[in-house]
Amino acid sequence: MINLTRERGGILDRVWDKVGEVLGGVCEEAWLALDEQGWNRSGGTLTLRGGRIWTGDPARPWAKSVVIRNGFIAGLDGTTTEGRVIDLEGRLVVPGFQDNHCHPQTPFVLFSPQAPMLFACTTLDEVLEEVRRYVAATGSDRYPRFFGWMSPIFPPGVRPTRQMLDAVVADRPCYLVHHSGHEFWANTKALELADVLHRDPPGLPRSCVIHRDPATGLATGYTEESEFANTDGVLLRSVRKDPPLTLPMQALALRYVLEEFSRQGVTAIWTKDGDFSVIDVYEKLLRHDSLPVRTILDVCHTPFGALNDIDRQVDRAARLRMAGLPPGFLRADGAKLLIDMPTDTHQAWLFEPYADGIGGCGFPVFDADVRWEQARRADLLGLTLNFLAIGDRAVDEALGLLERVARENPPRRRRHCVEHAEFVRDVDVPRFRQIDAVPIFNWIGAYPNQAYQEKFAKIMGEERISALYQRWRDLIAAGSPAANGSDFPLAPPDPLAGMHVMVTGKNLEGEPSGGLWPHKHLSIEQALRTYTTHGAYARGEELHSGRVRLGYDADLTVLAEDILADGFDANRLGHVKVSATIVNGHVVYEDFSSKPKTFPPHPRG
């Protein structure tokens, strides 16, 4: 995967450096109160002029200046100015980028905030040495958690064991998260705390496998937990018995993570963290007038959950709406429903078997009656359904469920989504538009790192992998407003990097020449719309967001280069710098210097 977090200067390094700076003797709650930003309660007023403004509005696609008043677009191409005046000096302004699939809270759950990432470790000894060194230096971390170990550190047929970890940390629970986020490696103490050393917990779904020693029946320390591991997984439950971060600390750390989104021009997110407790963290930030992005929160309904969790979510979303918070910044009405799981663990649900002969055709997470009852209930109560569907059979199932709820539930305005949608059959392409379902892609799945994609092709087959590069254009051509997301922390929250992949088929170093697979290229404007106008449509907010139009929310991104100019080299897309990010009429990030863009390493491997 992409190593974005623990390289010096990477995202989480910057976040924890900031946290460390402000906590010198000041409690987190006090700092949140002292450092309120003023972004949410009232809108800002300013004027942008001296560049080009792409509005995203077919009726008026271009402007030369924009006036923002009290957080809304108040004028285009006028002669007067209001508030601060920003001279664009030829820069391009676009509607604010929207990252509609990300997990900003996950880093503070799945791994210890200051533990080293393990992406760069190429041997088992290197991984264990990183663990040993961190544990020896941080006695205060009661439950060390690490992220990023890679499968190739083990020879074929060998899997991690609890005894390997016990050799370097035996006095406290410890677990390591695989780079995919869907496999875990735990020591004995962690397995004991989770109460799974001797037996599986009741109701363990088949998509969660706690590997056991056939001779003793004891857990080996290797667990495959899949998508819900970061919301309701076996090992995560043990972390919750002794939360590593207080609520104010989570809010403080989250604010700094979200400011990293602002550095990339992101003004709105749709977070898939999926936990009721996460709502509390975002609400705290908003109460402190310091939420730098407009946010929709999904609650993930997992195999460990109950059907009445959907009713609980409806109640929580209603209480959030009535809490007297600044309007337009925080919703919790998205229900994340699981159809299948990732391909790298052979759990994506396919019509045809995996190319490597392992796993058959994959399988769904839930039985058919449970899938239907979840979808029916969530739609009936007015939630937005967001199906995680990766394999082609899973996508077909998600579309079928959406067609069925529209037939059997009372009529209402519906705007549901299918997340990932990596493998879509030709026959299913027009179904998205027919039922007004929005596909939300993650560009990291198609990142053209040759070693990774060739390994992926052995699992899926080259024909299916090649199709992964075609569906963006196919769906858009069929009239579907496909949207996009980063899947952070698996990839940087950088829309320009995502656009670079969609437009060129190359990685950020320009390789391979011509793209890794046959590639139906999107235009730059088409790719831009997946992060702006299409994103707003997916969120059901197209009547006040996603365009630079009179009366719309004043959420804008200022780019250092005009990526829509004739002659712009698309191979530069991923290297274009964001000069400013404006949310609710406030400049939440700016860097008008001539310094080049910096970003963490991107190659996936």
Which features does this protein show?
eight-stranded parallel beta sheet; alpha/beta; 605 residues; disordered N terminus; eight-stranded mixed beta sheet; 20 helices; disordered C terminus; Diaminopimelate Epimerase, Chain A, domain 1
Task: Give the SSE map.
Elements lengths: L10 H12 L5 H7 L11 E9 L7 E8 L2 E5 L7 E4 L4 E4 L1 E6 L4 H4 L13 H14 L7 E5 L12 H5 L8 E4 L4 E4 L1 H6 L15 E4 L6 E6 L4 H4 L1 H7 L6 H17 L2 E9 L1 H12 L6 E8 L6 H14 L8 E9 L29 H13 L3 E6 L2 H17 L8 E4 L8 H6 L3 E5 L7 H11 L1 H7 L2 H7 L5 E3 L9 H10 L19 H7 L2 H6 L17 E4 L18 E6 L2 E5 L15
Characterization of the model:
The chain has 605 residues and is an alpha/beta fold. Among the domains are: 114-240, Diaminopimelate Epimerase, Chain A, domain 1 (Roll), CATH 3.10.310; 247-538, Metal-dependent hydrolases (TIM Barrel, Alpha-Beta Barrel), CATH 3.20.20.140. It is globular. The termini are close together.
Classify the helix fraction into a percent range. Answer: 25-40%
CATH fold title of the domain at 247-538: TIM Barrel
Gross morphology = globular
Query: How many strand units?
Result: 21
The proportion of residues in beta strands is 15-25%
Helix and strand content put the structural class at alpha/beta
CATH superfamily of the domain at 247-538: Metal-dependent hydrolases
| Biggest β-sheet description | 8 strands, mixed
Query: N- to C-terminal separation?
Result: 5 Å
Mean pLDDT: 88
Low-confidence stretches: 1-9, 601-605
Cα Rg: 23 Å
Q: Give the CATH architecture of the domain at 247-538.
A: Alpha-Beta Barrel
Counting DSSP H or I runs of 4 or more residues, the number of helices is 20
CATH C-level class of the domain at 247-538 is Alpha Beta
